[in-house]
Design a protein that fits this description.
This protein is mostly beta strands. Helices cover about 10% and strands about 35% of the residues. Strands 1-2-3 form a 3-stranded antiparallel beta sheet, covered by helices on one side. Strand 2 and strand 3 form a beta hairpin.
Length: about 70
């Protein structure tokens, strides 16, 4: 399957989905299945939002790091 078009909320062609899903809508994709000859419209939604703290970097940007080359 090939994705030919990805639309962000507010772009032309997203009005109905934006009304339906509101702020949870991330994007709309149009996928094309060559075998079946079908076009599929998919939506990406936010279903959960939680706080997250990224882990600290393993090495500082100025550190010299070990590297093994086989």
């Amino acid at each position: 399957m090939k994705t030919r078009l990805t639309l962000r909320p507010g772009q032309d062609g997203t009005k109905q989905e934006l009304e339906r899903y509101g702020g949870a809508l991330v994007c709309i994709r149009f996928r094309y299945d060559v075998k079946s000859g079908k076009r599929l419209k998919t939506v990406e939604l936010i279903v959960e939002e939680t706080d997250w703290t990224p882990p600290p970097p393993r090495y500082a940007s100025e550190d010299i790091v070990p590297l093994r080359i086989s």
